[in-house]
Amino acid sequence: MENKAPSRFTTIFRSGRHSLPVILGIFILYPFFAGDYYIDIAFFFGIYALLGLSLNLVLGEVGLFDLGHAGFYAIGAYTTAILNTQFGIPVLLLLPVSALAAALFAFIVCSPIIHLRGDYLCIVTIGMGEIIRLALINNPFDLTGGPNGVFGIDFPGFGTLFVIDSSIKFYFFIWLVVGLTAAGLLRLQKSRIGRAWNYIREDETAAGAAGINVRSHKLLSFVLGAAIAGAAGNIYAVKLMGVSPESFTFWESCLMFCIVLIGGMGSVPGVLIGAAFVSLFPEIFRPFAMYRMLVFGTVMILMMMFRPGGAWPRKRGESAFSPLPGKARQSDA
Amino acid sequence: MPEPSPQKDAPVILETRAITKIFGGLTAVSNFDLSVHAGEISSLIGPNGAGKTTVFNAVTGIYRPEEGRILFNGADITGNAPHRIVARGIARTFQNIRLFAAMTCLENVMAGRHCRTSAGLWASLFQTAGQKKEEARAVEIAEERIRQVGLWKARNDLAKNIAYGSRRMLEIARALATDPTLLVLDEPSSGLNPRETEDLMDFLKDLIHREKVTILLIEHDMNMVMGISDWVTVMDGGQKIAEGTPTEIYSNPRVIEAYLGAADDEEN
Question: Which of A266, A283, B62, B207 qualifies as a cystine partner to B57, CB 3.0-4.6 A?
Answer without folding.
Answer: B62
